[in-house]
Amino acid sequence: MKQRPFAAQFVSFTAVVVVAIVAATGRASAHVKYVTPGSEPVEVVQFLLTALSDPFTLAVLGIGGVTVGALVALYLHLRPARRDVAVFRETMASYDDLLPWLLRLSVGLPLVGAGFAGYFFSPLVQTAIPTFTRLFGIGVGFLLLFGFGTRLVATVGLLSYLVGLAFEPALFLAFEYVPGFLAIALLGGGRPSADHLVARLAADDTLYSRIDPFYRAVAVPFVRRVEPYTSLVPVVLRVGLGISFIYLGIAQKLMNPGDALAVVAKYDLTAVVPVAPELWIVGAGLTEVLVGVALLFGAFTRGAAAISFLLFTTTLFGLPDDPVLAHISLFGLVSALLVTGSGAFSVDAWLHETDESQKHEDTAPSGT
């Protein structure tokens, strides 16, 4: 009951996100430009009309949609393998202490790669000052990997990304850095990290603790202020990744069919699955949008994260000339969602509360 007002606001938020993504489509460059340097422009409305006027395409999409809906309804009704699901969730949640390390690797590694390759967050973005770009990527990336000054470094990284995005819309392609940096800023370095080692030295009766001017005066008060918000890390991750997936599906496929058709042709994807190129693009786009909406609302979050991982594996590693290193952040962040689950303000949380209420009603003694 408590989440219904939030749900209404969240629906409005989702609509705003989708509209914003569509509006930005013409300004932001597509992922497929990594592997297709140029392609013939294709009029979006004409492409969609052609694709959706094909009876076979409509049948496949319709059957796929009905099948997904039926499977979800069947799962909610039967709840098969309850114990298996519970053990899986418990096991994933037991890795919570390693979450900061996983997040630092997920963001630090691609930043180091970006620095050595000379691009700014995304391979599509080359700056006019390559030396600074290299030093920024390598410096911020290695500091995150070492876990030294983690929260400060993550904040600097986030602000740098946002400033860059204001000047270069193509950076929206690397939007996953926003939830990544935010989550790291909330959680800190964790363990193992240089911050953890320094904190242990500063907190104990050591020589270092007598000369450290930072730990008790700044670090401890800051951690106390941030602590109440660490529970929002799952929300930050899934909302950020949900936006990224919706962008991938709408802006880069459904609204950018020319480049998408070029990818299908270049890798002869119709030989892998013998369907029309239009069905490839529409199907892939709708699948990514569906996964993005599921993450945005926190519906079957761990399942959506697992599907995300599968999509990344097949679409990125299946393209031999795709810069996979640039997408390590996506792999790492969906892995983090496997650990955290959906968190608050989610369909999963509502379903859990409903289950607990039902169990309580079933076990409560009947009134006289």
TrEMBL record:
Membrane topology (UniProt): Multi-pass membrane protein
Top-rank lineage group of the source organism: Archaea
Signal sequence segment: none
Matching InterPro entries: DoxX, DoxX-like_oxidoreductase
Protein name as catalogued: DoxX protein
The entry's keywords: Cell membrane, Membrane, Transmembrane, Transmembrane helix
GO CC list: plasma membrane
Transmembrane segments: 56-78, 98-121, 231-250, 289-312, 324-351
Subcellular location: Cell membrane
